[in-house]
From TrEMBL:
Organism, scientific name: Paracoccus suum
Compartment(s) of residence: Cell membrane
Listed name of the protein: ABC transporter permease
Membrane topology designation: Multi-pass membrane protein
Coiled-coil ranges (or none): none
GO biological process, one term: transmembrane transport
Membrane-spanning segments: 20-47, 67-90, 102-128, 134-162, 183-214, 234-256
One cellular component term from this protein's GO annotations in UniProt: plasma membrane
Domain of life: Bacteria
Family the entry assigns: Belongs to the binding-protein-dependent transport system permease family. CysTW subfamily.
Length: 276
C-alpha cells in the first residue's frame, strides 16, 4: 500500500512538472497571436480589441520585404548545400570504412557543440583576412556550416536503414555504382533528404548570430526583427511577424516529420522518436 501511494504521488508530481514545463515553454508562443491581433500598441492585458492592422503594416513594409527575400534566399541555398554535402558525408560514414573516419566525422559534427558566437567570430576573422566582402554569400557559407550536422544526423539514419543487398542486387544486374546510387539508393532515402532540407531551411531562416556578424549591410529577417525591438510602436508588427514565422516553422517541421515517418515505414523499422 505504501509503495502504491508513493508511486501515485510520484506520478502526480511528474505530471505537474510536465505541465509547468510545457507552460513555461509554449506560453510565450501562445501569446504571440493573441497580441498580434490586439488593436492596442502596448503589449499588456487587458486587450483592446481585434485588428489585422499589424499584418497589413507588415505586408507593406519595404525593408521587411527585402529582409524576408534575403532570408529566404539564404535559407534555400543553405538547405540545398548542407543537404547535398550531408548526403556525401552520411553515405561515406554509413557505407564505408576508412582511416580517420571518426576524426573526420567528429570535425564535421563539431558545430553542434561549439557556441555560435565562436563560429561567427572565427568565420568573420577568416573571411576578412582573405579580403572577402561580407554579403549574403558569406551568410550562406556560415549557415551551411551549422546546418550540415543536422542534415547528416537525419541522413545517416536514412542511409543506415538501407539493406545492402538491394545495392548488391543492382550491381549483379549490371548497374554501375552511380546507376545503383541514383536508381536504387536515392529513391529509398528521399524522405530523409526532404526532412534534411526542411530542417536545414528552418534552422537557417531562424538563425541570428551568424547573420548578424556576416551579413554586412544586407538585412535578414532575424537581424531586422532585432533592430525593430528598440521602437515600441514597431512591437505589434513584430508580434504579427512572429506569428507568421511560428506558423511557418510548425508547418515545415510537420512536413519533415511526415517524411521521416514515411521513410521509417518504407524501411520497415521501428519508430524510436523524432522531431515532433
Amino acid at each position: 500500500m505504501n509503495g502504491q501511494t508513493e508511486g501515485r504521488a510520484q506520478g502526480r508530481g511528474l505530471r505537474a512538472y510536465a505541465i509547468l514545463y510545457l507552460l513555461f515553454l509554449y506560453a510565450p508562443i501562445v501569446l504571440l497571436p493573441i497580441f498580434a491581433f490586439n488593436s492596442g500598441t502596448i503589449i499588456a492585458f487587458p486587450l483592446k480589441g481585434f485588428t489585422t492592422e499589424w499584418f497589413a503594416q507588415m505586408a507593406g513594409n519595404a525593408t521587411l520585404r527585402r529582409a524576408l527575400g534575403n532570408s529566404l534566399t539564404i535559407a534555400v541555398s543553405s538547405a540545398v548545400f548542407a543537404t547535398c554535402l550531408g548526403i556525401f558525408a552520411a553515405r561515406a560514414s554509413t557505407r564505408f570504412r576508412f582511416p580517420g573516419k571518426g576524426a573526420a566525422m567528429g570535425l564535421i559534427m563539431l558545430p553542434l557543440v561549439l557556441p555560435e558566437i565562436i563560429i561567427s567570430v572565427s568565420l568573420l576573422v577568416v573571411l576578412l583576412g582573405m579580403g572577402i566582402k561580407l554579403s549574403i554569400l558569406t551568410v550562406i557559407l556560415g549557415h551551411t556550416l551549422i546546418c550540415m550536422p543536422y542534415a547528416i544526423t537525419v541522413l545517416s539514419t536514412a542511409f543506415s536503414s538501407l539493406d545492402p543487398a538491394l545495392e548488391e542486387a543492382a550491381y549483379d544486374l549490371g548497374e554501375t555504382k552511380w546507376g545503383a546510387f541514383r536508381l536504387v539508393i536515392l529513391p529509398l532515402v528521399m524522405p530523409g533528404i526532404i526532412s534534411a532540407l526542411l530542417i536545414s531551411f528552418t534552422i537557417s531562416l531562424d538563425e541570428f548570430i551568424i547573420a548578424f556578424f556576416l551579413a554586412g549591410n544586407e538585412p535578414t529577417l532575424p537581424t531586422y526583427i532585432f533592430s525593430q525591438l528598440r521602437f515600441p510602436k514597431a512591437i505589434p508588427m513584430i508580434m504579427a511577424l512572429g506569428t507568421v514565422l511560428v506558423a511557418l516553422s510548425i508547418v515545415l517541421l510537420a512536413i519533415a516529420e511526415y517524411f521521416r515517418r514515411r521513410g521509417i515505414a518504407r524501411a520497415g523499422l521501428k519508430d524510436t522518436g523524432g522531431f515532433l
